[in-house]
UniProtKB/TrEMBL annotation:
Protein name: Extensin domain containing protein
Protein's UniProt keywords contain ATP-binding: no
Record organism: Parasponia andersonii (Sponia andersonii)
Biased composition (Pro residues): 57-71, 78-98, 105-125, 132-152, 159-179, 186-206
Domain of life: Eukaryota
Residues of the signal peptide: 1-41
Amino acid sequence: MGSSKSSFSTKMGKMGSPIAFLVSTLLVVLVSLSLPSKTTANDAYSPPVSPPYHYKSPPPPPPVHSPPPPKEPYHYKSPPPPPPKEPYHPPPVPSPPKEPYHYKSPPPPPPKKPYHPPPVPSPPKEPYHYKSPPPPPPKKPYYPPPVPSPPKEPYHYKSPPPPPPKKPYHPPPVPSPPKEPYHYKSPPPPPPVYKYKSPPPPPHHY
Protein backbone atom coordinates (compact mmCIF):
# COMPACT_ATOMS: atom_id res chain seq x y z
CA MET A 1 0.00 0.00 0.00
CA GLY A 2 2.92 2.44 0.75
CA SER A 3 4.46 1.91 -2.70
CA SER A 4 1.14 2.58 -4.48
CA LYS A 5 0.67 5.88 -2.56
CA SER A 6 4.21 7.06 -3.43
CA SER A 7 3.75 6.26 -7.15
CA PHE A 8 0.41 8.14 -7.18
CA SER A 9 1.99 11.21 -5.50
CA THR A 10 4.86 11.26 -8.03
CA LYS A 11 2.37 11.11 -10.93
CA MET A 12 0.38 13.99 -9.48
CA GLY A 13 3.63 16.00 -8.98
CA LYS A 14 4.53 15.53 -12.63
CA MET A 15 1.05 16.56 -13.75
CA GLY A 16 0.90 19.60 -11.40
CA SER A 17 2.90 22.03 -13.59
CA PRO A 18 0.86 21.58 -16.83
CA ILE A 19 -2.42 22.03 -14.92
CA ALA A 20 -1.10 25.22 -13.28
CA PHE A 21 0.00 26.50 -16.69
CA LEU A 22 -3.46 25.86 -18.15
CA VAL A 23 -5.18 27.62 -15.25
CA SER A 24 -2.90 30.66 -15.57
CA THR A 25 -3.47 30.93 -19.33
CA LEU A 26 -7.24 30.75 -18.85
CA LEU A 27 -7.10 33.54 -16.24
CA VAL A 28 -5.05 35.75 -18.56
CA VAL A 29 -7.52 35.20 -21.40
CA LEU A 30 -10.49 36.06 -19.19
CA VAL A 31 -8.85 39.25 -17.89
CA SER A 32 -7.88 40.37 -21.40
CA LEU A 33 -11.46 39.84 -22.60
CA SER A 34 -12.93 41.81 -19.69
CA LEU A 35 -10.68 44.85 -20.31
CA PRO A 36 -11.90 47.46 -22.87
CA SER A 37 -10.04 47.20 -26.16
CA LYS A 38 -7.94 50.27 -27.16
CA THR A 39 -7.65 49.28 -30.80
CA THR A 40 -9.87 50.74 -33.46
CA ALA A 41 -9.69 47.71 -35.69
CA ASN A 42 -12.92 46.11 -36.85
CA ASP A 43 -11.66 42.59 -36.21
CA ALA A 44 -12.52 41.21 -32.78
CA TYR A 45 -9.77 39.67 -30.78
CA SER A 46 -9.79 35.91 -30.91
CA PRO A 47 -7.57 34.15 -28.40
CA PRO A 48 -5.33 31.40 -29.69
CA VAL A 49 -6.89 27.98 -29.60
CA SER A 50 -5.14 25.87 -27.06
CA PRO A 51 -4.27 22.42 -28.38
CA PRO A 52 -5.84 19.48 -26.58
CA TYR A 53 -3.74 18.19 -23.76
CA HIS A 54 -2.43 14.69 -24.14
CA TYR A 55 -1.49 12.84 -21.00
CA LYS A 56 1.89 11.29 -21.08
CA SER A 57 0.72 8.57 -18.72
CA PRO A 58 -2.69 6.86 -18.36
CA PRO A 59 -5.14 8.51 -15.96
CA PRO A 60 -5.24 7.19 -12.42
CA PRO A 61 -7.57 4.31 -11.72
CA PRO A 62 -10.89 5.15 -10.10
CA PRO A 63 -10.85 4.87 -6.31
CA VAL A 64 -12.01 1.58 -4.98
CA HIS A 65 -14.83 1.98 -2.45
CA SER A 66 -15.27 -0.65 0.15
CA PRO A 67 -18.86 -1.72 0.97
CA PRO A 68 -20.44 0.42 3.69
CA PRO A 69 -20.63 -1.11 7.14
CA PRO A 70 -23.97 -2.69 8.04
CA LYS A 71 -26.38 -0.36 9.76
CA GLU A 72 -27.37 -1.16 13.28
CA PRO A 73 -31.09 -1.65 13.85
CA TYR A 74 -32.81 1.46 15.08
CA HIS A 75 -34.16 1.19 18.57
CA TYR A 76 -37.19 3.30 19.31
CA LYS A 77 -36.98 5.40 22.43
CA SER A 78 -40.73 4.87 22.90
CA PRO A 79 -42.92 1.82 22.18
CA PRO A 80 -43.74 1.25 18.51
CA PRO A 81 -46.85 2.95 17.18
CA PRO A 82 -50.10 0.95 17.25
CA PRO A 83 -51.19 -0.82 14.06
CA PRO A 84 -53.26 1.29 11.69
CA LYS A 85 -56.97 1.17 12.34
CA GLU A 86 -59.50 0.26 9.71
CA PRO A 87 -61.11 3.23 7.99
CA TYR A 88 -64.29 4.41 9.64
CA HIS A 89 -67.43 3.94 7.58
CA PRO A 90 -70.34 5.89 9.03
CA PRO A 91 -73.73 4.14 9.01
CA PRO A 92 -75.93 4.99 6.02
CA VAL A 93 -78.22 7.91 6.59
CA PRO A 94 -81.86 6.85 6.03
CA SER A 95 -83.56 8.81 3.30
CA PRO A 96 -86.45 11.00 4.43
CA PRO A 97 -89.91 9.50 3.82
CA LYS A 98 -91.48 10.57 0.57
CA GLU A 99 -94.59 12.63 0.82
CA PRO A 100 -97.65 11.21 -0.94
CA TYR A 101 -98.12 12.67 -4.36
CA HIS A 102 -101.22 14.81 -4.67
CA TYR A 103 -102.73 14.83 -8.13
CA LYS A 104 -103.70 18.18 -9.52
CA SER A 105 -106.71 16.49 -11.09
CA PRO A 106 -108.73 13.46 -9.92
CA PRO A 107 -107.04 10.12 -10.55
CA PRO A 108 -107.91 8.39 -13.80
CA PRO A 109 -110.68 5.79 -13.68
CA PRO A 110 -109.70 2.14 -13.55
CA PRO A 111 -109.28 0.49 -16.94
CA LYS A 112 -112.40 -1.11 -18.30
CA LYS A 113 -112.58 -4.68 -19.39
CA PRO A 114 -112.49 -5.17 -23.15
CA TYR A 115 -115.94 -5.42 -24.70
CA HIS A 116 -116.75 -8.75 -26.29
CA PRO A 117 -119.97 -8.54 -28.33
CA PRO A 118 -122.29 -11.56 -28.23
CA PRO A 119 -121.83 -13.97 -31.11
CA VAL A 120 -124.04 -13.19 -34.06
CA PRO A 121 -126.05 -16.24 -35.14
CA SER A 122 -125.31 -17.22 -38.67
CA PRO A 123 -128.25 -16.82 -41.08
CA PRO A 124 -129.99 -20.03 -42.14
CA LYS A 125 -128.63 -21.50 -45.29
CA GLU A 126 -130.90 -21.40 -48.28
CA PRO A 127 -131.50 -24.66 -50.12
CA TYR A 128 -129.27 -25.07 -53.06
CA HIS A 129 -131.00 -24.76 -56.42
CA TYR A 130 -129.42 -26.66 -59.24
CA LYS A 131 -128.92 -24.74 -62.43
CA SER A 132 -129.82 -27.85 -64.37
CA PRO A 133 -132.13 -30.74 -63.44
CA PRO A 134 -130.59 -33.32 -61.19
CA PRO A 135 -129.02 -36.28 -62.91
CA PRO A 136 -131.28 -39.29 -63.43
CA PRO A 137 -130.92 -42.17 -61.05
CA PRO A 138 -128.55 -44.90 -62.18
CA LYS A 139 -130.13 -47.51 -64.39
CA LYS A 140 -130.24 -51.13 -63.49
CA PRO A 141 -127.94 -53.36 -65.49
CA TYR A 142 -129.58 -54.76 -68.60
CA TYR A 143 -130.15 -58.46 -68.65
CA PRO A 144 -131.27 -59.74 -72.08
CA PRO A 145 -134.22 -62.15 -72.07
CA PRO A 146 -133.27 -65.79 -72.16
CA VAL A 147 -133.13 -67.31 -75.57
CA PRO A 148 -135.62 -70.17 -75.81
CA SER A 149 -133.96 -73.44 -76.45
CA PRO A 150 -135.12 -75.37 -79.47
CA PRO A 151 -137.87 -77.85 -78.71
CA LYS A 152 -136.62 -81.26 -77.87
CA GLU A 153 -138.01 -84.20 -79.56
CA PRO A 154 -139.93 -86.48 -77.23
CA TYR A 155 -137.85 -89.27 -75.99
CA HIS A 156 -139.16 -92.63 -76.62
CA TYR A 157 -138.37 -94.92 -73.75
CA LYS A 158 -137.69 -98.46 -74.45
CA SER A 159 -139.16 -99.17 -71.04
CA PRO A 160 -142.14 -97.60 -69.38
CA PRO A 161 -141.66 -93.89 -68.72
CA PRO A 162 -140.50 -92.79 -65.30
CA PRO A 163 -142.98 -91.23 -62.93
CA PRO A 164 -143.33 -87.46 -63.06
CA PRO A 165 -140.95 -85.53 -60.83
CA LYS A 166 -142.30 -84.62 -57.44
CA LYS A 167 -142.51 -81.04 -56.23
CA PRO A 168 -139.98 -80.04 -53.58
CA TYR A 169 -141.31 -80.10 -50.05
CA HIS A 170 -141.76 -76.70 -48.38
CA PRO A 171 -142.56 -76.96 -44.66
CA PRO A 172 -145.17 -74.54 -43.35
CA PRO A 173 -143.75 -71.33 -41.80
CA VAL A 174 -143.17 -71.42 -38.07
CA PRO A 175 -145.08 -68.60 -36.37
CA SER A 176 -142.83 -66.20 -34.43
CA PRO A 177 -143.52 -65.85 -30.70
CA PRO A 178 -145.59 -62.81 -29.77
CA LYS A 179 -143.55 -59.80 -28.63
CA GLU A 180 -144.12 -58.54 -25.13
CA PRO A 181 -145.12 -54.90 -24.88
CA TYR A 182 -142.22 -52.63 -23.75
CA HIS A 183 -142.80 -51.01 -20.40
CA TYR A 184 -141.00 -47.66 -19.90
CA LYS A 185 -139.29 -47.27 -16.57
CA SER A 186 -140.03 -43.54 -16.64
CA PRO A 187 -141.67 -41.25 -19.17
CA PRO A 188 -139.30 -40.12 -21.91
CA PRO A 189 -137.89 -36.57 -21.45
CA PRO A 190 -139.52 -33.83 -23.48
CA PRO A 191 -137.53 -32.50 -26.41
CA PRO A 192 -135.30 -29.52 -25.43
CA VAL A 193 -136.69 -26.15 -26.36
CA TYR A 194 -133.98 -23.84 -27.66
CA LYS A 195 -134.21 -20.39 -26.21
CA TYR A 196 -132.84 -17.69 -28.48
CA LYS A 197 -130.84 -14.92 -26.90
CA SER A 198 -132.34 -12.62 -29.51
CA PRO A 199 -135.73 -12.85 -31.26
CA PRO A 200 -135.90 -15.86 -33.57
CA PRO A 201 -135.30 -15.20 -37.25
CA PRO A 202 -138.36 -14.74 -39.45
CA PRO A 203 -139.64 -17.88 -41.19
CA HIS A 204 -138.15 -18.51 -44.54
CA HIS A 205 -140.58 -18.23 -47.48
CA TYR A 206 -139.84 -20.32 -50.48
